[in-house]
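Two records follow; treat each independently.
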Amino acid sequence: MILLHAIPWAGALAGYWLFPEQLPLLSAIAIAALFAVSLDLIVGYAGLVTLGQAAFFGAGAYTAGILAQQGWGEPFSGLLAAAAVAALLGLISAPLVLRAGELAGLMVTLGLGLMLYEAANKAAAITGGADGLQGVEMWPIFGLYRFDLWGRTAYLYSLAVLFVLFMLARLLVASPFGWSLRAIRGNARRAPALGVPVKARLTAAYVIAAAYAGVAGGLLAQTTSFASLDALSFQRSADGLLMLVLGGLGSLYGALLGAVAFTVAHHALSEASPVFWQFWLGIALVALALAGQGGLLGLARAAIARLRRR
């Protein structure tokens, strides 16, 4: 079992040597995967759908970027600051989202994301506005490993952060806290009968997911030396949900698989057809939905089950 879990991470590490010219793309995949994991914690496990996860991603990106721009380019403390700001934003907004109910709460998350997007656009003196945040300079990791133009340090750094946070997420969802989230997702009205404090658990999950998204945003700003309004856009949130649907909800490895598949498909299809790439991606999503539930991970599990029966 341990060997089975080690295979995808060994493959990701091998990509450093197998695809040296694609390291910036691999870094983008690692960051997208962390963002997808943050969404899976609340959508897949807690059953709380959101359209504003990009608000936390963007908050983390601008926090890490502004810190570096102002002269503090230490990577790890920048990520901690990004996580803290995003978590605080999640803590402030959680009561509004949870109080509104399912559909209204969905609209609240969308509204919060749009508000933060416009706020960042108006605060051009701080964020750079539509031009983006310039002058983000990171210090070498541990004072030794500089961020280079080829993305070598950036990829290993992003992969290491993803690995650590993914393993923490696995411990979290396997804990009593994680099982209480599953109970809430199954039936939020009956969960209190089991002694589950629903609002407290959902608030905690929302804040943790916000912190994860903030770290993903911080990674993007640090590895690209740039932060823009795109980090706060609705498209960012929508892409994250597509990754979950593509890979499979309620499984952290499904989030990873969906992030890889979506980012690679986006890259390949946009190069082949810059205008109509979304059309082909839409066909793939429809075909996947018709093939069965559970996304790509569900299809893989079904195929393995058939082979075992034979």
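The next record belongs to a different protein.
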Amino acid sequence: MDPFPEYSSELVFETDSSLQLLLFIDKRSSSKDQLRQVQDYLETLRATCAFELQIIDIEDQPYLAEYFKLVITPALIKVLPEPRHILAGNNLVMQLTECWPNWQSSVIASEVRQPSLDSQNALAQSVKAMQLSDEIFQLRQENEALQEQGLFKDRIIAMLAHDLRNPLTAAAIALETLEGQWDASPNKVVLPPETMTRLAHHARSQMQVIERMITNLLDASRGKSSELKICPRKLDLGALCPLIVEDIQSKAEAKAQYLKMDIPPDLPYVHADSDHIRQVFINLLDNAIKYTPEGGVIKLCILHRTTQKVQVSIMDDGPGIPLGKQKAIFHDAFRLERDELKEGYGIGLALCQRIIRAHYGQIWVDSTPNEGSSFNFTLPVYRT
């Protein structure tokens, strides 16, 4: 059994030894070796002078390192009797050998114990005050984060209530029109089959918009710390992309935009979760449509970048993104100043990043102001 305690929860000496020492270590193996050497050497000196040693892990109690103004570890500090003396570095035993006679002399010279105890109490109180100050600072940070999160959720709820109205209204109108076709009234207008098919497709696409909005918000509410659950399987992007483009085509047509695909016929399968990757495509294409001006062109390109990865790029003719903001746009709730009055929550790109990283891929943007943007991401090639 070690003769000394390995860790100290607070700076309180338990014995009445006049010589009181602190040994600061970290979690490196070399620091642990120094601890053992110092412990073994001090044990050989115990007969020459009574002392107490406390072992402190600097990572567990950083406020103590701040109080003693330590810059390196391991470090051995003679706290009492005063004056304080600090030894630091990788040769503590050698330094201790030189200092021990002086430390013994300081103990002999300090015959009145009460001043030492007063100094000890003052030291413990100062360190305790610093510890409490650090805890208050952490609590203040946590409180500010909770307030910010609460404001963000309030804003999301208000925007969701507003934005849900459009797709709900559109779906309701389409369904009411279709329902009217079963009306027995002799004066009813009979719609051609292709119109009814288009209305049904429109109602379905609007319900998908609502579903995506709810999914995005649920994923955002789980926060960064939660694990994103994916079920990767063999996935054919060449077959998936036309289906996605078909679902979103009406939004592009409403702005007279041309959506162009460039997908090679020999594109390999990828190893990915179909639902989550569809969500990434939809989020990026929605953004491209939103920022591309009327009559603009949006391109969806896929290439077999390496034997291990496939790269997807979605390019637009929008206003572009300033260089200094191109990483920040993937942060939760981040929005460019120009977009404060636009619809959206500032969470779509952050969710895309979480999904792609869960697939061990990368996502980034190449953009030049006033010349458009290219959002790119990679997915792993499927291996049998």
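Discussion point: The first strand starts at residue 19 and ends at 25. How would you locate this feature using only the token line?
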